[in-house]
Amino acid sequence: MNVVLVIEDNAEIREVLEEMIRADGAMVESAGDGAQGWARVRREPFPCLILLDLKMPVMDGVEFLK
Description:
The chain is 39% helix and 21% strand. With 66 residues, it is of the alpha/beta class.
């Protein structure tokens, strides 16, 4: 099954995005910062889509993309 990964440090925004994605029938996983998101990306199955916040603590979105 395809997985959508949401990487967002704001818990409220992350939860809203998760609900919207699940409402469309997709499987969703989430991370609170770029480092957590990167750890998830390295596991199977690889996400088919990543929604990435750019301004986050620990590892921001720009660092994640590099």
